[in-house]
Amino acid sequence: MNKLYPLKFNPIYKEKIWGGQNLKTFLNKNIPKNKPIGESWEISGIENENSIVNNGFLEENELNELIEIYMGDLIGDRVYDRFGCQFPLLIKFIDANKDLSIQVHPNNKIAQERHNDSGKTEMWYIINSQKESKLVSGFNREINKTDYLNHVKQNELINILNFEKAKAGDVFYIPAGQVHSIGEGILLAEIQQTSDITYRIFDWNRQDQNGNLRELHTENAIDALDYSTKNNGKTEYTINKNSSSKILKSPFFETNIISFDKCIELDYNNLDSFVIFMCITGELELEYYESEKIKLTQGETILIPAVIEYLKLNPVTPSKLLEIYIPEPDEKRKNKK
User: Fold this and answer.
1) According to the 3-state scheme, what is the secondary structure of 236-268?
2) What share of the chain is helix, strand, coil (3-state, %, to 5)?
3) Nearest-CA neighbor of 45 among 77, 75, 22, 2?
4) Rounded distance, CA 119 to CA 123, Å?
5) Which residues of 204-222 are buried (b: 16+ CB within 10 A; e: fewer)?
6) Predicted confidence band at 33 (pLDDT cuts at 50, 70, 90)?
7) Which residues touch 31 (CB under 8 Å, ≥6 apart)?
8) pLDDT at residue number 213
9) Separation CA 332–CA 272 (nearest Å)
10) Is the pLDDT of residue 331 over 50?
11) pLDDT score recorded for residue 214
């Protein structure tokens, strides 16, 4: 059997009422002209939306089919034991040319009961934004279900939402249950659980191309919402140049940032997980198996199989990557100590 290698995939473009052309302008995506493309699904294991490889001898194969064949060599033994042939993450770029709806995603328990599916916890890395761009992350105060429903009925939901300014480099963690929305003028990378379940709460009274108001999911959202404030989801982090710097760890994914202008080496020997790189800026060359090489440029995403334990990153220009993988559960990590 031929050796596994870093895999690139055909992006799956999603036309949205709020989409634009920034995926082309900023990330060099070959999106259709004059169509409002809101999302580029970079790596997906969603049923009927499986990513298809576009490089090497595995070209034209679907991701989930490859997991059936390569199992732990592709995604890591512990990841395969936990998720089987379902790829556990959905990786996207999102262009909000207009405000997205106010929405919430269910947690694993609710999603399993209602949809026989996974919940949806996600994070956002802001790539670019307009000066006045804002997003919604949580409520602006602690409320209860009755208070929330009163605001919905009176069309005053925005009065209890927490609005945050968004600038390039900001990171927001959006756990399942947190009310949220991406605002006009924001381009971001989204890392999330493999789920496409969204409950739309309010859509700015916006009409579709046929003049109809878009469907709302008010009843479904009631029990899915977390009404406590807790925090705004904004994640502070520090970039250490020419090394992997931690941004965020959740039970579902861990995300780091690598900002580098010289060759660096990465050791994944103890990780036992696939690794995903999203190239935010720059151009680089990935070196693996000591002498094999593959290029990665701004706007591209690549999946590093778990069997590749050592990498070199050689920048052609100063580069910035998001580095994503499945963390080992804390309880297992403690038991090893």
Assistant:
1) CCCCCCCCEEEEEECCCCEEEEEEECCCEEEEC
2) 20, 40, 45
3) 75
4) 14
5) eeeeeeeeeeeebbeebbb
6) confident
7) 13, 21, 23, 24, 37, 40
8) 85
9) 13
10) yes
11) 85
pLDDT confidence tier of residue 1, bands split at 50, 70 and 90: low
The pLDDT value recorded for residue 337 is 43
Q: pLDDT exceeding 70 applies to what percent of the chain?
A: 97
Class of domain 246-336: mainly beta
Model pLDDT for residues 247-258, shown as the tens digit of each residue = 999 999 999 999
Mean pLDDT for 194-222 is 89
The H-assigned helical ranges of 3-144 are 22-27, 63-70, 72-75, 77-83, 108-115
**What are the φ/ψ torsions at residue 315 (nearest 5 degrees)?**
-75, 130
Asked if the domains at 12-224 and 246-336 fall in one CATH topology, the answer is: yes
- How much is the pTM? 0.95
Residue 225 has pLDDT above 60, yes or no: yes
Residue 180 tokens, joined: 């949220």
Delimit the domains of the chain by residue range.
Answer: 12-224, 246-336
Q: Going by CATH, does the domain composed of 12-224 fall within 2.60.120.10?
A: yes
Distance CA 152, CA 124 (A): 26
114 is catalytic: no
* Residue 306 to residue 75: CA distance in whole angstroms: 5
Q: How many CB atoms lie within 10 A of CB 21?
A: 17
Active-site residue among 200, 206, 214, 333?
200
Q: Assess contact for 75 and 67: CB atoms under 8 A.
A: yes
